[in-house]
Queue: 2 jobs
Job 1
Amino acid sequence: GAGVSQSPSNKVTEKGKDVELRCDPISGHTALYWYRQSLGQGLEFLIYFQGNSAPDKSGLPSDRFSAERTGGSVSTLTIQRTQQEDSAVYLCASSLGGLAVQETQYFGPGTRLLVL
Amino acid sequence: KNQVEQSPQSLIILEGKNCTLQCNYTVSPFSNLRWYKQDTGRGPVSLTIMTFSENTKSNGRYTATLDADTKQSSLHITASQLSDSASYICVVSAPSGYALNFGKGTSLLVTP
């Protein structure tokens, strides 16, 4: 079956521009996560969606970052007025949506963002 | 301060050899520990998951061990193959919520 897909796979943008990153989770997975992976660093939690509950946005690094999840499926991560330090790989993961700490998260291939 | 420390940062071994990767954590209380494999340009893929009551878990040539008393885990790779070249990430969960604590990973290169 299809795994988690993300688009675009690569994105190069100029400083100050807005970007949108898309994530299609595994069908039937109600939990969706966004992470950021900077060079040489571990994954950094950004935001968590679970069903129809209000998302946990506690990991978003600034108000330039926002995310939506429409219809409980596809999610979009938006970065406004991009900065060079936003350059990283943005990974999306999904899981069934049960007891979160017991579940395996399935990751997408990531979007590599480069801000010039 | 990162609550999950991995060592070594990088490792180069010859094809066919064994190797062991280390993970020390300070996450407390503790729920489970996962090892993920991340190929270059791909997302992480789960290899093993262990709860505090488990000491060892195998997945083919990968064997993970856990000492919850000393808060240490290791991932042993037997008879390495070129396809084992990847980053191996240790991930530790607390009992509640969904927050995962990720190590920075060990980058493994298996050479012919």
Job 2
Amino acid sequence: AQSVTQLDSHVSVSEGTPVLLRCNYSSSYSPSLFWYVQHPNKGLQLLLKYTSAATLVKGINGFEAEFKKSETSFHLTKPSAHMSDAAEYFCVVSDRRGATNKLIFGTGTLLAVQP
Amino acid sequence: DGGITQSPKYLFRKEGQNVTLSCEQNLNHDAMYWYRQDPGQGLRLIYYSQIVNDFQKGDIAEGYSVSREKKESFPLTVTSAQKNPTAFYLCASSISGALWNTEAFFGQGTRLTVV
């Protein structure tokens, strides 16, 4: 069965320093993986997705993620954090069992950015 | 602008009452989903629908009901049988429920509080 594990529930960085949010996945198939961002009391916005093309995926707002099959990881990175990046981030895998595409969410990582 | 509209943004309900959350999309998407979000638990799937007049239970369907009479609309009713209804509810849609590599688009959510 497909699942995702977000290794950190909270991450705090200083503005201008790199961001690393870690995600490991488990999948019996070649997975589709996504990162979503959620600002307080808002819906979720897609940052980027991996669907078996290039292993390094570039997303919006300077974020990128690298799919590493050998490590079953899909970590999210950004070279320089901005105050507006403070939000909760979800790693998501697509469940390919059955006839319906269902998304399985990690428990989220709350990113704090200090001035 | 195309998107998903959830209403109301905040909802208060007395114990023992049923309440209906609205979700409308103008993206011409076939599939629609309802998720529940609780702190530290990520998003959990309540119900999903691949096409009009069809819907399936997700992982936590007990105490909830849905209908899909129109492609654009997928209302969720939280019944009095739901033992812990206070949560943030998110509606989503995707172009097709059968394509495993497609992302979901989310509404802004409804925060339900039982008083």
